[in-house]
Write a structure and sequence with these properties.
The protein is an alpha+beta fold. The chain is built from four helices and seven strands. The protein has a single domain, classed as Roll (Pnp Oxidase, Chain A). The protein is globular, with a radius of gyration of 15 Å.
């Protein structure tokens, strides 16, 4: 079971600091080290194009279910979807870096019964996700990351 201190209302300064530090560490270590990566929670760095077409570095937690990777747009339980999820809807091609190994991916938005099945598995792994849905008042977007390894970048 995974606990989520970062989703507590009083954790905003910690969240902002860890995201900023993860972006710096990503540049300094080519994605080999991140703040979230030292926790027991699986972490990746999503490289996605923003609305202006610029590459943006997004540190995220992920879930591996039946050998596939999924990311959830929690946005720290806020009522709006995270920007990166809208960017993936517009441009699903992205890159994922896990401890320095970079992979080209296509993010596939899960919907309907497929989403519900994955959501149930996510909540079983990380029960705090049920609170995210309740606190945010929205259904978090869930993306499957379909990938093809392109090798390590040093």
């Amino acid at each position: 079971m995974v606990l989520a201190v970062g989703h507590h209302d009083l954790a905003a300064p910690i969240r902002r600091s860890s995201v900023a530090l993860d972006r710096v560490l990503f540049k300094l270590t080519a994605g080999r080290w991140t703040v979230t990566g030292v926790s027991r929670i699986p972490a990746l760095t999503l490289l996605v194009r923003n609305a202006r077409g610029e590459q943006t570095v997004i540190p995220l937690q992920y879930h591996e279910i039946d050998g596939l990777r999924y990311i959830v747009g929690t946005n720290w339980s806020r009522p709006t979807h995270p920007l990166w999820s809208a960017w993936l809807l517009a441009r699903p091609e992205c890159r994922v870096n896990i401890t320095g190994a970079e992979t080209e991916c296509r993010a596939v938005l899960m919907t309907g019964e497929d989403r519900q099945c994955i959501w149930d598995a996510v909540v079983k792994i990380s029960p705090f996700h049920a609170d995210i849905e309740r606190k945010s008042g929205r259904q978090p977007r869930v993306f499957r990351l379909d990938s093809e390894v392109i090798g390590e970048h040093h």
